[in-house]
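Attaching the record inline, Q. Sequence:
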Amino acid sequence: MSFPILTLLVLVPAIGSALVALLSNRQPDVVKIVSLLTSVLVGGLALWVLFAFDKGASGFQFESQHMWIERWGVSWHLGVDGISLFLVVLTGILFPLVIVGIDPHHDHKRYVSWLLLLEAGVMGSFVSLDLFLFFVFFEIVLVPMYFLIGGWGYDQRVYAATKFFLFTMIGSAFMLVGIVATAILAKADNGNVTFDLVKIAENGSFAASTGRWLFFAFAIAFAVKVPLFPLHTWLPDAHTQAPTGGSVILAGVLLKLGTYGLLRFGVYLFPEAAVWARPLFLTLATIGIIWGAVAATMQKDLKRLVAYSSVAHLGFIVLGTFALTSQAIAGGVMQNINHGISTGALFILVGMIYERRHTREIAQLKGLQKVAPVFAAAFMVVMLSSIGVPGLNGFVGEFLVLIGSFATARWWVVVAATGVILAALYLLWAYQRVFHGEPDDDNRGFAELKWREGMLLLPFIAIIVFTGVYPKPMLDRIEPSVQRLVEHVEAHSDWHAPVVEAEEGEG
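Structure, as predicted:
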């Protein structure tokens, strides 16, 4: 397709960010209009990509490739497949909702300018098919997120922003070394130095030890971003101190740079190394699931509880990725989206509680269901989706991960499955303490869900229910690309994903 739709997805929010930054502080209405139009246009383009996407094709679509730095072999190479498609759509949906629906309370102009730049970086990361280009976008994301946490966060915001920045920067340094080394070492197979992901993945043949070192250089950066146990300590602080909009974007799409990166750049570029490192990543993912759940149970701050739940949920995605079956990986890709929707909505609801009560301490909240039944109902639906109740979106992804992983990672799955039970424990217990009982004097005046707040939550709840009841449209677009990836791993390593029919025949 000649129309550069993916280029527009990156450039429109970047131009919007620059325009907003140039506007005067005395024109708040113009700032709102420009930021809204920009984010809605990007959302519209993302939905256009979704509807125009050929669900039967397994390769990259809407590709756009132009030489950028010819001397180094760096190109502006963009493309989208079933693995990245819904991450692009999720990004396009979340940003306008955050810009329209969540008030930063001060310095609105700088806030939306940083948000739009962040959207450009995130979009660029999800559609880049050039290693150098991906690194540029991956790093761009750091800056606006640092300023959003540090400028609009809560009491410990500077500490949290600095911790987030340092962790991610250290991880990125490893990846930069890995990217340069990969391009240079792949020169022998490609005939010239190139950073093109597809060329290196399809033509590159690294020695086993070399591939493993390179894999870990990438994997460290992505493990920090996920974050994978034990590199997760920055996340609860960042989430707790970030403004509500920042937390929604952080949970919704930023953490997915890690899980997406492991799949797109780790497994695809270095299949042999990914197979070799399976036990380590399966173990760390399982520990993360249990640790996140146990830590969440112990939290006194409602927002921090939701933050630790992310550690557990993302553990499931990594488990699915390194199970290396098409079913498990498809479940992991789907769970990327489900987690972004459910946890994003939870952070919005916790932000609404804070706006009303100026506290997130669970002990100070009680009996909210009696004074705000509609608010409680919305919270209940979102919470049940996060638990993974059948009929809601969280169930489908987790079920596919567990079923698909059972044949290749049986004992890890058995342990990980307890994480589902623990999720029910800490979330239902939190709900009981916050919403049940008799409200005291402080909570008796808790305001019911407003019309505008309901409109903000409606898209989240609609996606939660629709995806839970009818996941087929998503899976139809995800599965061909996932199957192609598994075949790529089988062709470039000694890995063979189990065939269910064959196993049944043998039995």
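Residues 5-506 form one domain. The longest helix spans residues 326-357.

More tomorrow.
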